[in-house]
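Record type: monomer structure entry
Structure origin: computed from sequence
Chain ID: A
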Amino acid sequence: MDNSFQEKASLLKVLGHPVRLRIVAGLAREGACVKDIWECLNMSQAVVSQHLKVMKEHGIVEARRDGTRIHYALRSEMLAELVRVLHLEI
């Protein structure tokens, strides 16, 4: 099987969780820190952090430290385009 198909299938598998899709939809508009994300989603920081960790490990998001805060953003414009194609909004 073509490796690019395997990579895309792995990406879609990670994005197959509703919470992760909501996070990606939010980050498609602009980057945010963990606190902003969990407040927007009305979820615990632990749950959101765990999902961000999984997405970071799979190259979906990138993290940048800003003092005591960690700021997350999508790593690829392709993901923002996917949000637009799927008409995802939070």
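Annotation 1: The chain has a mean pLDDT of 91.
Annotation 2: The chain is about 60% helix and 15% strand.
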